[in-house]
Amino acid sequence: MKQLAAFTQKEFLELFRTGRFLILAIIFLLFGIMNPAIAKLTPWMMELFSESLAESGMAITEIRVDVMTSWAQFYKNIPIAMVIFFILFSNILTGEYQKGTLTNMLTKGLSRWKVLAAKGFTVLLLWTICFWLCFGVTYAYNAYFWGNGSVPYLFLSGLCIWLLGVWLISLLLLASSIFRTGSAVLLAGGGVFLLSYLLGMLPALSRWTPIYLFAASGLQAGASPSEFLPAAAVAVLLSAAAAAASIPILARQNL
Amino acid sequence: MDVLELSHVSKAFGRTPVLKDLSFSVPEHTVYGFIGQNGAGKTTTMKIILGLCRADGGEILVNREKVRYGSGRTNRYIGYLPDVPEFYGYMTPREYLALCGRITGMEDGEIKKRSGELLEIVGLTQSDKRIQGFSRGMKQRLGIAQALINSPRLLICDEPTSALDPAGRKEILDILSAVKEHTTVIFSTHILSDVERICDEVGLLHQGSLALRGSIEEIRQMRRSDGFEADFYAPEDAEYFLQLYPQGERLGKTQLLYPGKSRKEMEKAMRILVETGITPQRLEMKEPTLESLFMEVTGT
């Protein structure tokens, strides 16, 4: 436990001292502010462009924005924030292989599974903080401007997107235990994501792929929570399987 | 007692064999010079000892405990200094040593005391700045401190001086000489003067196995003398002596080399000099150096 605690503490120190935590916190905070801000500014922007739009034959009559506009913006923006998050962490293990910093730790007797556990825990915690920061800021502004009372299953849909992130983190760990470069990790992660997307296009499988959790905004449009249960269960199982598989794979790597 | 024992270790990368039936042992409290050309397999051997690389065959014991690939268990007896040690640049030396100490299972009080001692030994007590601003020499010294944090029984140094300037090399060799009282050291290098300076025992790795082993003196005695050299005050003396005692080669106007001649043959030359009344400036037996042995064995 002492080894695990020491290495986890090192991971947190790295997050703060390399500025990664600050960068991600700012990005997710900005996205959180942007969602209601874009919704609020949409009528003004439309009015500003109405003349040029009228010249091209488009007539703007009445623009209505409400809390749903802001939440729709949230579901559009969160994938972008998610991509930035994963790019920033694509070298979480490969960076250590390439620099050789991990060698010193392993030759001190640090178990390889503890390296994965410390890194996985740190990234998971940071994802949780960043995601719910973005969600919370949007929620607070929406509550102030319009009120969230009319939005059904708000936290449940947030939980679905968060769970999708957890699945991606497990893929990140698995790919990092297999490959030696950050670009290979990103490609492998992106490949699995794409595969899940393609499988999701098959009607029989669509509700069973983790990628279906992206459609959780449908909960606000009347979808039933049970619709997302298969995808959530598969995401949990695949996350656990990927995390478990990465341990023996890393243990067999020549470093 | 032997701190490290390698028995019939073999390793190949693809179809290229790197280690072939390699066996040797390192007794306690010695500095073992592990020498060989670049690419001879020194680093691979060390990585196998550290459990970082899988051996294809054979057995390794550290402190009589079997080394298992992928497991860091036997590493609790080992300190490792790579050729270019890499650190977490955002940490200070004290923070890094504290991390290393905690990973090796030391108590906080012990870590603080030991870190202070080691930073003093390696001359980094004044440095509270982050490691990212360190020179290569400072990093190498910190590398030694981290390798010794848990007072290991075996210190493995993989070419620790190869990337350093002469001043940096001297510093590292002085530190290694100082620690050998308490720790057994394996010192891998291709800089033979470093080996001659601090090592008690030597093993020369060539084509995957040990071509030479023993103390430096034993190894020298295994090989014949390189002959003797005679240096005279005047070129005429050199010419006259060459006529009296042929088989010599001219090295210069006043210098002669008698390659492969034994000590007895040099004594014969001395008698000729006394009889003829020629006074040489210098008459010297050419003892085989580690370098000449290395060249002879490796064929370079």
What does this protein look like?
The complex is a heterodimer of chains A (255) and B (300). Chain A has helices spanning 2-17, 20-55, 67-88, 94-99, 101-106, 112-145, 154-178, 182-200, 229-251. Chain A has one domain (2-252). The longest helix of chain A is centred in the N-terminal third of the chain and has 36 residues, at 20-55. In chain A, 38% of the residues are buried. Chain A is elongated, with a radius of gyration of 21 Å. Chain A is built from 9 helices and no strands. With 255 residues, chain A is mainly alpha-helical. In chain A, helix 1 (2-17) crosses helix 6 (112-145), helix 2 packs across helix 6 (112-145) and helix 7 (154-178) crosses helix 8 (182-200). The mean pLDDT of chain A is 90. Chain B is α/β, with parallel strands linked by helices and 300 residues long. Chain B folds into 2 domains: 2-221, 3-Layer(aba) Sandwich (Rossmann fold), CATH 3.40.50.300; 223-298. Chain B is built from 10 helices and 14 strands. Chain B has helices spanning 42-49, 93-103, 108-121, 136-148, 166-179, 192-198, 216-222, 235-244, 263-276, 290-298, and strands spanning 2-13, 16-27, 31-35, 57-62, 65-66, 78-81, 154-158, 184-189, 201-206, 209-215, 227-232, 249-250, 255-259, 280-285. In chain B, the strands form 3 sheets. Chain B has a 6-stranded mixed beta sheet with strand order 6-7-8-3-9-10, sandwiched between helices. In chain B, helix 2 (93-103) crosses helix 3 (108-121) and helix 4 runs parallel beside helix 5 (166-179). Chain B starts with a strand and ends with a helix. The model of chain B has no long low-confidence stretch (mean pLDDT 86). Chains A and B meet through helix 1 and helix 5 of A and helix 2 of B.
User: What composes the largest sheet of chain B?
Assistant: 6 strands, mixed
Sheet with the most strands: spatial strand order of chain B: 6-7-8-3-9-10
Secondary-structure element order of chain B, N to C = EEEHEEEHHHEHEHEEHEHEEHEH
Q: Give the overall shape of chain B.
A: elongated
Pfam family, one (chain A): ABC2_membrane_2
Protein name (chain A): ABC-2 type transport system permease protein
Keywords (chain A): Membrane, Transmembrane, Transmembrane helix
Organism (chain A): Cuneatibacter caecimuris
